[in-house]
Design brief:
alpha+beta, about 230 residues, eight-stranded antiparallel β-sheet, about 30% helix, 17 strands, five-stranded antiparallel β-sheet
């Protein structure tokens, strides 16, 4: 399931983020890559723990917790502290799969990476290339979103970032451990939640809305891992 989540950040927040990112120090992105990924990764990142990264990460986490579409699609249990990368001058990230387990920096806490997320800080017309390409059984999905928008996709997916040949692609990326480990179950719950919302909008007093809401929560109760 690949979900595009618009307007995670407001334009004012995007402007603040760009300023913080411009003031930060950038290093080789291979620092956070696994053994295989490091061979195909060519980008720049802000070091983990950088004060600007922490400040911006907190802004993103607050925005995510207030976004109904993200919460419905991800059903998050834990969110890895957001990281930040930049591609320019032909940089790219070859085909890879994300690590299954990530340790939260500075803690003994580890999360299972059920979902991957990319949040864009530059509008598509500001740079050439830089598409996030996610592979699944239906083919390759190419994603390049407006600033402030986010894409959510299974961390099990093979994916890559195409070379950036003009301008700079600047994004945040992070992972989510969902309460629902299985992507198929998570997709069913997401579709049911959307259907319940539409039913409540079109027929706010229809008794089926209550019944379906009960089914949704009973399935969530049965499948959730806490």
């Amino acid at each position: 399931m690949l979900i595009k989540v618009p307007n995670v950040l407001t334009q004012e927040q995007v402007a603040e983020a760009r300023q913080l990112l411009a003031e930060a120090e950038w290093t080789d992105g291979k620092a956070t890559a696994g053994h295989q990924s490091s061979r195909v990764k060519d980008n720049m990142q802000i070091p983990q723990g950088h004060p600007n990264a922490r400040r911006l990460g907190e802004m993103i986490l607050r925005a995510l917790s207030a976004n109904p579409l993200f919460m419905s699609a991800a059903l998050p249990l834990h969110v890895f502290p957001p990281l930040f990368n930049s591609y320019s001058g032909g940089q790219k990230f070859g085909t890879h799969v994300d690590n299954s387990i990530r340790q939260v920096p500075g803690t003994n806490h580890r999360i299972r990476t059920d979902l991957s997320a990319t949040l864009f800080f530059e509008d598509p017309e500001k740079y050439e290339g830089g598409e996030l390409c996610v592979e699944d059984t239906y083919g390759v999905h190419r994603v390049k979103l407006p600033a402030g928008d986010l894409v959510l996709y299974p961390a099990t997916s093979l994916h890559h970032v195409t070379p950036v040949t003009r301008g700079a692609r600047v994004c945040s990326f992070f992972w989510i451990q969902s309460m629902i480990r299985d992507d198929g179950q998570r997709s069913l719950l997401f579709d049911m939640d959307l259907a319940i919302q539409r039913l409540n909008q079109d027929h706010p007093d229809h008794p089926s809305a209550t019944q379906l809401t009960g089914v949704y929560h009973n399935l969530l109760r049965q499948w959730a891992e806490m």
